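step=encode ok
step=design start
structure_in=
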């Protein structure tokens, strides 16, 4: 039960239906296992080094300005908290907000090119920003579908492009996540098109979007 919660972000209500246990029992057992895992922290978690990384120590542009940074400044992505208005510029392919600033120029060239082609085809004026918003809406759906396919107990129907759950599991999950119902136990419209565009799972730079707010950014 503990692994289902931490590994699949399952709610206690769903776990209760799956294992036929009360929420109180699940909560109590979860807390006990969590405490036991916490007691192993000294053996399992290595604290960061307090020494200045060599790459920073011997670089005049970086030392002493970055001497207190953990790790080398080599493009490695680190978690960062930024204002919501600037979050798009810091999203990376790991679906997290990174402390690595990005450049929007490369993205705009391609979005504007797509917008120009659509305008010529349809005879309607389309902007790059409209293309951007449309694609991020569909990418958000793809991210959600990918997450739901990993649900414990979920099966994938390749013929009908459908994520299936047993009746009790479906009912419990939808009670906790009502918006997921449109993707469960029903064929998913435009699945093949989304898979073609987003299904590689290795998008980088501007084509890497976060799961909760998925704008595109460029490295």
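sequence_out=
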């Amino acid at each position: 039960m503990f692994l289902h919660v931490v590994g699949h972000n399952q709610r206690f209500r769903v776990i209760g239906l799956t294992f036929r246990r009360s929420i109180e029992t699940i909560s109590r057992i979860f807390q006990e296992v969590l405490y036991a895992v916490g007691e192993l922290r000294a053996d399992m978690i290595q604290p960061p080094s307090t020494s200045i990384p060599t790459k920073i120590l011997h670089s005049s542009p970086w030392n002493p300005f970055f001497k207190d940074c953990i790790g080398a400044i080599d493009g490695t992505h680190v978690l960062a908290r930024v204002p919501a208005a600037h979050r798009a510029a810091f999203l990376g392919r790991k679906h997290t907000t990174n402390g690595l600033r990005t450049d929007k120029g490369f993205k705009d060239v391609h979005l504007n090119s797509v917008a120009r082609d659509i305008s010529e085809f349809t005879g309607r004026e389309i902007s790059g920003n409209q293309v951007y918003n449309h694609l991020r809406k569909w990418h958000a759906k793809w991210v959600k579908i990918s997450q739901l396919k990993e649900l414990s107990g979920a099966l994938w129907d390749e013929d009908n492009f459908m994520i299936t759950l047993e009746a009790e599991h479906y009912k419990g999950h939808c009670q906790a996540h009502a918006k997921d119902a449109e993707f469960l136990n029903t064929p998913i419209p435009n699945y093949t098109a989304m898979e073609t565009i987003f299904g590689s799972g290795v998008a980088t730079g501007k084509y890497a979007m976060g799961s909760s707010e998925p704008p595109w950014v460029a490295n």
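step=design ok
step=annotate ok -> Strands lie at 155-157, 162-164.
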